[in-house]
Amino acid sequence: MSGPDPVELSTNPFDDDKLHEECGVFGVFGNPDATALTALGLHALQHRGQEAAGVVSFDGQQFHTERHIGLVGDHFTKASVIERLPGDKAIGHTRYSTTGAPVLRNVQPLFAEFAAGGFAVAHNGNITNALTLQRMLQKRGSIFQSTSDTETLIHLTATSDRGHLVERFVDALRQLEGAYAIVALSEKKMIGCRDPLGVRPLVLGDLDGAYVLSSETCALDIIGARFVRDIEPGEMVIITEEGGLESIRPFIEQKPRFCIFEYVYFSRPDSIVEGTNVYSVRKSIGAELARESGMPADLVIPVPDSGTPAAIGYAQEAGIPFELGIIRNHYVGRTFIEPSDHIRHLGVKLKHNANRKMLEGKRVVLVDDSIVRGTTSLKIVQMVREAGAGEVHMRIASPPTMNSCFYGVDTPEKSKLLASRMSIEEMADYIKVDSLAFLTIDGLYRAVGETKRNAEQPQFCDACFTGDYPTRLTDRSNNTTVRQLSLLAEAG
Amino acid sequence: MSGPDPVELSTNPFDDDKLHEECGVFGVFGNPDATALTALGLHALQHRGQEAAGVVSFDGQQFHTERHIGLVGDHFTKASVIERLPGDKAIGHTRYSTTGAPVLRNVQPLFAEFAAGGFAVAHNGNITNALTLQRMLQKRGSIFQSTSDTETLIHLTATSDRGHLVERFVDALRQLEGAYAIVALSEKKMIGCRDPLGVRPLVLGDLDGAYVLSSETCALDIIGARFVRDIEPGEMVIITEEGGLESIRPFIEQKPRFCIFEYVYFSRPDSIVEGTNVYSVRKSIGAELARESGMPADLVIPVPDSGTPAAIGYAQEAGIPFELGIIRNHYVGRTFIEPSDHIRHLGVKLKHNANRKMLEGKRVVLVDDSIVRGTTSLKIVQMVREAGAGEVHMRIASPPTMNSCFYGVDTPEKSKLLASRMSIEEMADYIKVDSLAFLTIDGLYRAVGETKRNAEQPQFCDACFTGDYPTRLTDRSNNTTVRQLSLLAEAG
Amino acid sequence: MSGPDPVELSTNPFDDDKLHEECGVFGVFGNPDATALTALGLHALQHRGQEAAGVVSFDGQQFHTERHIGLVGDHFTKASVIERLPGDKAIGHTRYSTTGAPVLRNVQPLFAEFAAGGFAVAHNGNITNALTLQRMLQKRGSIFQSTSDTETLIHLTATSDRGHLVERFVDALRQLEGAYAIVALSEKKMIGCRDPLGVRPLVLGDLDGAYVLSSETCALDIIGARFVRDIEPGEMVIITEEGGLESIRPFIEQKPRFCIFEYVYFSRPDSIVEGTNVYSVRKSIGAELARESGMPADLVIPVPDSGTPAAIGYAQEAGIPFELGIIRNHYVGRTFIEPSDHIRHLGVKLKHNANRKMLEGKRVVLVDDSIVRGTTSLKIVQMVREAGAGEVHMRIASPPTMNSCFYGVDTPEKSKLLASRMSIEEMADYIKVDSLAFLTIDGLYRAVGETKRNAEQPQFCDACFTGDYPTRLTDRSNNTTVRQLSLLAEAG
Amino acid sequence: MSGPDPVELSTNPFDDDKLHEECGVFGVFGNPDATALTALGLHALQHRGQEAAGVVSFDGQQFHTERHIGLVGDHFTKASVIERLPGDKAIGHTRYSTTGAPVLRNVQPLFAEFAAGGFAVAHNGNITNALTLQRMLQKRGSIFQSTSDTETLIHLTATSDRGHLVERFVDALRQLEGAYAIVALSEKKMIGCRDPLGVRPLVLGDLDGAYVLSSETCALDIIGARFVRDIEPGEMVIITEEGGLESIRPFIEQKPRFCIFEYVYFSRPDSIVEGTNVYSVRKSIGAELARESGMPADLVIPVPDSGTPAAIGYAQEAGIPFELGIIRNHYVGRTFIEPSDHIRHLGVKLKHNANRKMLEGKRVVLVDDSIVRGTTSLKIVQMVREAGAGEVHMRIASPPTMNSCFYGVDTPEKSKLLASRMSIEEMADYIKVDSLAFLTIDGLYRAVGETKRNAEQPQFCDACFTGDYPTRLTDRSNNTTVRQLSLLAEAG
User: Fold this and answer.
1) Which CATH architecture best describes the domain A6-257?
2) C149 labelled ligand-binding
3) pLDDT tens digits, residue range D413-462?
4) Would the pTM of this model clear 0.90, i.e. be above it?
5) On the CB side of C155, how many CA atoms lie within 13 Å of its CA?
6) In whole angstroms, how large is the CA radius of gyration of chain D?
7) What is the ipTM of this complex?
8) Is chain A adjacent to chain B, meaning 3+ CB pairs within 8 angstroms?
9) Interchain proximity B143–C154, CB inside 8 Å
């Protein structure tokens, strides 16, 4: 091809300038269509992880496993796949991966055959001392397939000196630091568990008498299950055919610290998390933003789709028309060849186009949920300006994102986060807006129903905004690294 | 699997209860990155056809072709594919297919080597006497690969007794009845042409001196090309390296009849078609609807995403809050296994979920662009009701769709169209709403800037609403059918 | 990888230093398992073409086609493929391709829908005026998919001004020069035809009353069909349900010139071609060779497997033990990476290994069927020497191959043929043998049962040895070339 | 499809009526092209296992693994695969699997990361107490990926309480019963080891100073390596960069019992195993057979290709002509659809066809290497008779196969072995021959150079003929079974 060297523009919707939740978990106990229901639940949780998905079922005799790279809808829609997963008990997992090429052996649920029987585990979160534990286990002769923290949990369970499986599993969990919401399945039991801080969500549902566990309520809705309650921080529920649901609290009690970013971006707007509807919180955030940093304008324009609820809230509070000034292309490609370097901002245009006629000569409030690296904001603003907008005022529906997350979210290193490198004024210059404002941390706490952030004892995990991590970060302190471990390498 | 037989729920976004535009066309003449630009243009036109896409380029010596089943972003993003299409001239096509399995030999652009050189044609529209012409050609010894009307045009050109290629092409086009917007490429020329009625759109753009042809302006935006003007109904533009652009009018002149449904649903909201911004028309439609059939309500809720602009227009006109009461799952699957038949309405839930907290106890105005078979409306309404809505008033942003389209749109048979079978009251009962109103035909004409529909000489093609077809339907009158024709059948 | 650049060693069994027959044809008329039988027949003809295979069936209503790159056993063994080809009439084709990457549109049988009905053609041979005819047809408006001579035949048939299909087909065939053995299928008829010289073989069989046509008798054996007779040079047989088999002779009669190389290498040893068993001919060739150029030795060693029958004949005539001094690896790979350039002769070793213990210190007669480029002979001889053979005497079971074939065999250009560049002495030096002898042309004619070659009126086509081509070579004289033609290019 | 139900005929060359060696092993230490050489070595060992192949390399920093279902030539011929396996040390494995669908996690070499570093193991043979050991390990918390005996060995090594890797490995091996020839690779060492009885072969080669280990010498030939010596029964060789090759004997010494069937069928005829050329042994077997049970005949015909060397030996000893009366189709398919059930014996014809002209009216001696189930013999004899043979005398180049092998060979259960169910006379009737004779056990011992079998202390493992197993069969005595174990199930 003549002209300048082609540059690959990544337009993967899963790879853009956003933080990414790494996982969704789901389980059904006691319905003859357990696997089909689990596939549907995972589909509704697809926004929590788009790289790969897996389901383990148990048919009373045997466990069955299918794990695939790709969307749930790419694989778990086929009758042949569903039929390979018989049984009335099933758990599933959908995953976003942080590094490198997707590798099947990292796809969950993980399954192991213990001397006492099979055990499958699906995990959302991240263990901050997993590598340290792994080195210890390896010295004792455990052979790892992956560096996955979930596998660490399984080996801890396998080598525990306790008696029954639940005791061994509790013994293993007590050695973990970090955040986890887990759904596990043995021959007799489905187990749901949240870490003592309750950083990641997990809810309980009921479908005609069958128990359902899910990361979010939107996955209960898709199968028509009734929302029963949240699993509580530090709670373990043990579901059996005979005993129904038993709840235990095997950990030392702590003040909960639910992840506040679930409200800002991760969870689906139609979900109810920790008792509160996400869409309503986002609208409240928009209203807070209008009160905190409103200004005269002709239009309120969301950056679709993540900025939309906050933009509606802002527009209603400010009494300024809400308009679709940016149109989203739903047919997202992976990576296009850039035709030449004088055609700039192509990346953003693959997903978004300015609705020129709406913007010409207007004073625009542009609402987005957060700024990570700032690369997308820069391009969006430029596109809006080139379409003729008179003024561009950017309003962000969260405080500046200044710190990495170590609890199951894919964040760039701190040094790549725009807000860790620049002041708000510098950021405004960088992305070339007439004004830029973030929601204050107290504004965010107000939007979720608190009066303000309790600095002594914060009500949420807000480490990405404040740097206040609620657990130890052992592997990080130890600078632990582990070589790529595997008994069985994957084939190409 | 135990339980009732699994039923496959089609949730293909491309196969739902909507009318489908069958094609988008695009071409670049005189830019070294012609193919990469064409791929981008087709990506922006993806909403006009998601089944398959193709590009033909010419490098001064040879034509190159790539055609693939799937989205543009699935294939035309790879450097290897782009490199197989060298040259500074390229045309492309994206296609939605009406019947049966997608077959590669139907994918455009079609390309033929004539004794005088190569010729590639990409076509949006439908020829209503194609089969009749095909039978005539076959008797003379022409061998067809497909029943495609585009191939009919190519054989007419090949066997024409005129001299130069343009003359032969005009000779061929004059034998056609129906609707077409065509982009064609020979070794020396790029040709753009619209049928005398101008049913389908085609626009001219300029990228740093290179000519661009496109179905819609949104595809000019993505590559940063300047919108120059619409190609006019009955106009043929002939672009050459020496002569620039020459415009001829080879057909008997007729009053234009642009497809009004392009404003209602087909075109992208950010496009400017026939001089008017689509988003603005859709907002005006919503406002007309509020004026024609407004009623007291708590919320205006769009059926996402096609109902959104009209819902915003309605909400602004009526002074009722616009809210996202239905959340769309962006990770659309193909077909899931239905877990059991007491879980109903699953199909719609794969794509949409009611935002329960917004809807509980509310009087809701639900806005959608059209009703085709009514199956989706039925499910959406039930979902909204089950989420607790107090009243549901459905408002449709177009008149009742009562007739099939024969001009390049995939419509069900007339008998399958809900509005051809029922009165509005019956439809309201059927989809179980408290009230149902459609936009009037004059309301629609007002929204596009006319005073009213001119019944003698309608300003647009509105046959799907009125049954007033602007051309003869020869094949249909003749009841012409053709056996599956092919020299070379496709492999599995 | 360190070390010298890796070199790819082609070890494809289909791509080695041999001449390659380009096609096998087969057809069944009137058996409910016509397609399965055709698949089996093609499998038995696999040695005549390994690149691709196709089958067309007719079920009384419709024609069905499957064509695939790869071996018959790769595709036509699946129930799903066989079921897509219903009917009691089927024809098939297996193909070796001369140039470039295999492309599906060149795979036969070709099928075309004429105004009068469908017509499928499978062809073994080569038309020497095909390009000249193609140019004529193109000027009249025929659009070609390929440069295949078979498609030329189909367009000639389609545009013939005669009445019925058989008349049109004969009209088309009369315009051809070159070699052809054809099996064709219309809705009512199966047609078999050999060119007037009968260069390529075609036989008639009977399976419980169903007619069978095949390139060789070994394909009758596999399905248990009885061999009836050869189709004669210049004969056309027309098989119908009502009339059984009708034989006509539509061409001007000529003296037959069957391809003598079919005996030397192309046909399978268990086939009976033109009345004679191939294995017996090859043994006679070996015996002739022993008489013409025998010499004292300890062992007779075939180059497996093509040299084996002649080596057995030589050993029996000469009274010297026949031994397996070279062992063939049956698991032939495609192309291995050469580890480093000081490890020579790897290519040949991928297929063959010297049986060292048999060869040490022995005087060896090495028998091969022919020498084409000489590259394999050179390596085989060196391998045998390195294994310790004392003397190596090469005996070739045919005269020197000095000329290209234009009748359906893939031959290198004349300048690449070792025998056209060197005397026998030079060749002996080049491949490093102690002696080298070829069979004389009269020896070859004796082995096939003639007294000697009749120089005035040769009994066979032996142009590869003598340069005496039995037809005009019009395209070659005209230096006709045709641009790559296609209405529909293939996707990657 | 009309007619009787189609029956699938398995004609997989890898699945016919033969015993199958399960594995070949190969390793190179100290050559920059280690992986390419290993791929070539495995290609030469392909006859020992066609289901899957794998290579592990070490580049000084990291281990790299590729394992694929299919032939070596299907995967390890690509530059991209070879480049993913850098390093100057590599080991490889080719495998035939006994049961069920091929599963990637069973493909060797297995690789594990121990606390002390990586360790890869490739194994030919079978451990007769593997399941018993596995149950013990599982109780201690080891998590298995497979039921593979090789993985048992790896866990025994990982959990050993000894110090250095070699000590741990010896500790693990000492717990094994059964047959093994192993090639293993750590960061510093390549290890080769044969069990104390030396049931399976392993040889040492030298390629310009680099050590090579291989199951057979034919794989040394392909890379041009020099054969140094056999690894001895009970010997372990430890190859390091510093120390060269160290030989230890870590096991209690026993009289060797090499597998005599390696001479009869498993090894390639060009290999030298335990000091003797396989082709020569097979010819001697044929001569013994002629002496033991010769009879007047016109032709000696091998069942190709396994019966060919013995047939040559028989023909030379008996003075009867050796002829190719059965022609093999080299293009072996997998499974064809049987067209109808009155066409019998199709299975065998897919691979073999009678050379009718050679057989008509002749008294034939048919030579095959062994009879397993007898199904193939039955069909071959019938095919030869239908081709017109006057008399058919079957001669088998080994004693009756009456017992299963538990040392790494895929044998049917004893009850499926024809010779365990019938006398020789009954077998002759069953396969419908005029006479049938097997080689005597002493005849076999004579052919390999012994005077006779020493019944007290047999010189070879001949359990398949005699039932005299040289080791304990612990799992079998315990009736140990293990549930399907896996941490990570495979994806489809």
Assistant:
1) 4-Layer Sandwich (3.60)
2) no
3) 899 999 999 999 999 999 999 999 999 999 999 999 999 999 999 999 99
4) no
5) 25
6) 23
7) 0.90
8) yes
9) yes
